[in-house]
Amino acid sequence: MTKNLWKFWGLVIAIAITIIACHSLQLSAPTATTIKLSGWGGSPVEQKLLKQVLQDFEAQNPTIKVKYEVISDQYMDVIKTRLVGEAAPDVFYLDALEAPFLMSQNVLEPLDAYITPEFNLADFEPTLLNSFKYQNQIYGLPKDYSTLALFYNQTAFAAAGLSNPPTTWDELRNYSQQLTGKLNRYGFGVSPELARQAYKITAFGGQLVDQNGNAAFASAAALQGLQLVVDQYQKDRTSAQKSDVGTNSGSEMFGQSKVAMVIEGNWAIPYLQETFPQLKFATAEIPKINSKKGTMVFTVAYVMNKQSQHKAAAWELIAYLTGKAGMQKWTGTGFALPTRKSVAQNLGYDQDPLRSPLVAGINYAIPWQVGKYPAAIVNNFDNQFVSALLGQQPLQQAMQRAQKAANQQIKTME
């Protein structure tokens, strides 16, 4: 065999060894599973925080990659369309308001089989977890929440000689009269949406919906609570809507000192601190109505698409994001309140001067849910209640119209 032939065969063998080695490496290196997570957009700071938490998850789970997608417009319409077309993400946000309908449609994966004792389901606030239960199965794990609390301007209170926040709604109306026209144009800022009025409806024994899922907010008991809002706006003239003072939200009219008191959620705290750093404000639990404590609770869960091709990986992501470590990272900056009791204690939110009234509210809050067809109920209420607030029609007539229209729409959807 010639020298050149030896060189040729040597080269062939070397190439073959290289190919075999590379092939072996490819076989031994595990391929990463990519799962898709969808949610709606928050503030830039919030989005940055979520991306950091997802990077931490990927670092701890090197075989799973997360593709995060923000759906900025018509979120639920997009999700529903994709679920029908079998193109929905593996994991996605689901607001408690929209949960009853989706849970009833057999498009979400029940999570009970994935939850182990170590996950410690009992650590979640029961009110929040129950919002994502349907027919004795769990379809979502709540990622965070907020109740509502009273925000009050401490400078305005001092100018009016008021040292403590009101503890009853009668006191709130009295305070509002004293505060109107002092440092602020109005004493109280009102948000007429059902999401902010529901606890007033239930204060006298009223209901939002009946056991059949129909609107029930026009009862005498419900009207008794709503009348408080109308009287303060029309008779006292000490409360204002955001449109009355040229602002876009309750938080903004409070921050701009157009009103001395407003009822808002946890989201208002970082907004006010960043946007209005000179504002001196405090929070308190919402004043009692009819001797009863009341507030709303808003929550969002991570849910799994039943058609997901990567359910094991999807569960790992949900378990991390709603587990103790992931939740502490997500809620540690104060943008949201943790749904796990142990995380709330670790972060000290139950002792936080601004957040403790919000945390206390979870014990008696009404979950923001109104059955399978929320749009029909919410839209009709909001339209007619604003009309009554403005004095365009009597409250009872407005609510009866809203209830009738809502139930007619529900009938066509069932």
TrEMBL record:
<keyword id="KW-0732">Signal</keyword>
<dbReference type="GO" id="GO:1901982">
    <property type="term" value="F:maltose binding"/>
</dbReference>
<protein>
    <submittedName>
        <fullName>ABC transporter substrate-binding protein</fullName>
    </submittedName>
</protein>
<dbReference type="InterPro" id="IPR006059">
    <property type="entry name" value="SBP"/>
</dbReference>
<dbReference type="GO" id="GO:0015768">
    <property type="term" value="P:maltose transport"/>
</dbReference>
<dbReference type="GO" id="GO:0055052">
    <property type="term" value="C:ATP-binding cassette (ABC) transporter complex, substrate-binding subunit-containing"/>
</dbReference>
<keyword id="KW-0813">Transport</keyword>
<dbReference type="GO" id="GO:0042956">
    <property type="term" value="P:maltodextrin transmembrane transport"/>
</dbReference>
<comment type="similarity">
    <text>Belongs to the bacterial solute-binding protein 1 family.</text>
</comment>
<dbReference type="Pfam" id="PF01547">
    <property type="entry name" value="SBP_bac_1"/>
</dbReference>
